[in-house]
Amino acid sequence: MISEEMCDLIIDQYYDTVFRYCLKRLRKTEDAEDCAQETFLIFFQKRKILFMRSNIKTWLLKTADNVIKRYQEKNWHNDANIEDLSEILPDTSGEAINPLRDIEKFICKEDAELLRKYVMCNSKQEREALAKHYHMTLNNLTTRISRIKKSIISKIDN
């Protein structure tokens, strides 16, 4: 069993590494802090069986990876919210921008429709059904949505 004192030393030694790994994957300081803290909470809870691990750093990074995946799954809608795009869409007409309507100014009609449908999904099952409808895996759908969003942002920035 790893003692509480040893846990403190391990946390001091590896917290920055785990936090930077989380930040690189999540790109948001708050999210990275949450995931790093969750990683060390799991570490502390499992300290009784971890004394046999030869490489704690590897275990911490793998645990952080799993925490990040669960976090992204739980918070997927925060990244995909099309309403957030209204803050970055330029207003060239002087009238209020409706991101669901005006998004086609930046991407093709098919991508706009896919993005609208994706944002309206309220659960993983609905996203899986949408992916199946478009004859792709959920991972492929998520990747495509991410690329659509990046395309919108790059066109807005130019």
What report would you give on this structure?
Helix 1 packs antiparallel against helix 2 and helix 2 crosses helix 4. The chain starts with a helix and ends with a helix. The chain has 9 helices and no strands. With 158 residues, the protein is mainly α. About 5% of the residues have low confidence. The radius of gyration is 20 Å and the shape is elongated.
Which properties best describe this structure?
single chain; elongated; 9 helices; Rna Polymerase Sigma Factor, Chain: A; 158 residues; mainly alpha
Topology (SSEs and partners):
Layout: H1 4-26, H2 29-45, H3 47-50, H4 56-74, H5 76-80, H6 99-102, H7 109-120, H8 124-133, H9 138-157
Short description:
The protein has 158 residues and is mostly helical.
Largest sheet: none
Distance between the termini: 56 Å
Shape: elongated
What class would the helix/strand composition place it in?
mainly alpha
Determine the mean pLDDT.
81
Portion in beta strands? under 5%
User: In terms of per-residue confidence, which ranges show pLDDT below 50 for 5 or more consecutive residues?
Assistant: 86-93
Task: Give the % helix.
Answer: over 70%
**How many beta strands in the DSSP annotation?**
0
Topology as a string of helices (H) and strands (E): HHHHHHHHH
**What's the total helix number?**
9
Count of structural domains = 2
Q: What is the gyration radius calculated from CA atoms?
A: 20 Å
